[in-house]
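# nightly structure sweep
# worker-07 picked up a monomer target from the shared queue
# config: single-sequence mode, recycle default, output format = structure tokens
# input follows
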Amino acid sequence: AGVIGLTGIGQRPMAPGASSGWGMAMPHSHVSAYDYVADTELVAVCDLSEDAIAKYRSDWDARLPEVNVYTSHKELLEKENLDIISVVTGDNVHAQITVDAVDAGVRGVLCEKPIASSLADADRMIEAVESAGVPMVVDHSRRWMFPWVQAAQLVEEGAIGEVVRVVANQGGPRAMLFRNGTHMCDTINWFAQGNPTAVYGINEKGFEGYGPRYASDGGHDPDTDPAVSILVEYDNDVRAFWNQCKTMPGIFQVDTYGTEGYIQVSQDRATITTG
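# output follows
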């Protein structure tokens, strides 16, 4: 495996005692995940930033001394024979790196969220991997977290009858549309079990201190990527109501209502009410 992009979730070590929705200590970055999983071997990493590479070497050289380090993703792809590549760069270059990886013969792509900065880039990525028969996964981690997977399976099996509404609440400084909001968007679509046909949204208005709080996670202009309130209509007549607010307590909660009950999933716990 290889990792392109070594800042943040790209390479940070697993914190001692760190936990996740699995109820156990888990890696919190792509490098630490490949190191943690016995069936994978990390052979190469890449970043344009010398500072990021220096941080990687400080954190990982002692444990992973044989990993090759590159400053060009094209050189990495040319020299390495990879089964998997993690794309952990800015989303504005996800498309080009994914296309280059497919062209180089990489056999699987794991891309960080959001998938791309534009619909055109996302379509380009999908076309590249589908035409080559290469599996690609976008890292929406709740798709593998036990409470969320179990709740989605119950919904799919009809445990609450026919789904009619999905109500989602997301709060905290990271609750903005194009960052952690992409996780919520994916989760709502998952539980709604349909394809969106219409979306209505209102941006959260900025306030004193809104920008600096946002800048700690991505540095985008808060006027173009704030928290939002959204109504989504689906082709199966389900409606989803999604509320984000940066001043709410940190929360990631989805309530799915059916004709025979409802399921609530919040962080690492799921509850079902029927009848």
